[in-house]
Amino acid sequence: SCLVGPQLEIKICTLGTVINRIAYPADYCHLEGAGRQSQPMPIRWMAWESVLMGKFTSKSDVWSFAVTLWEILTFAREQPFENLSDDKVIENIGHMYQDNKKHILLPIPVGCPREIFDLMCECWQRNEASRPNFREIHLFLQRKNLGEYFHHL
């Protein structure tokens, strides 16, 4: 979840998870598995390794960040993978795990610069080590912002 502070700074946290589950129950799917109690999880925003293996790292956060960025660029008019049922989302995640090239990614939002979408696709790499870290993402977005600034001068 993202919180916005009084100086418009963004804080990424898990505090909103309980609130979100109550406010947006359709965004959560109950996952069951070996040694895991059924818990509602926002699978449409989660990296494959988090859904299938319960592995949560800064690289899985990078994946979720890219889905959130996708949402921002669609003006939250679409839910990630809204044309797929929860079962189909999990099946798609399974294709990512199997690395059989049958998985689908989110489409490029209308009006999204190609470089930004390419960044999102990097964040959705199957191999966690191939995903950028938050410092790299921050630097990339800063450069894009400065480029736009100088372009308008």
From TrEMBL:
One of its GO terms (cellular component) is receptor complex. Residues 1-141 form the Protein kinase domain. One of its GO terms (biological process) is positive regulation of phosphatidylinositol 3-kinase/protein kinase B signal transduction. Gene3D superfamilies: Transferase(Phosphotransferase) domain 1. GO terms for molecular function: ATP binding; collagen binding; protein tyrosine kinase collagen receptor activity. Pfam families: PK_Tyr_Ser-Thr. This is Protein kinase domain-containing protein. It comes from Anopheles quadriannulatus (Mosquito).
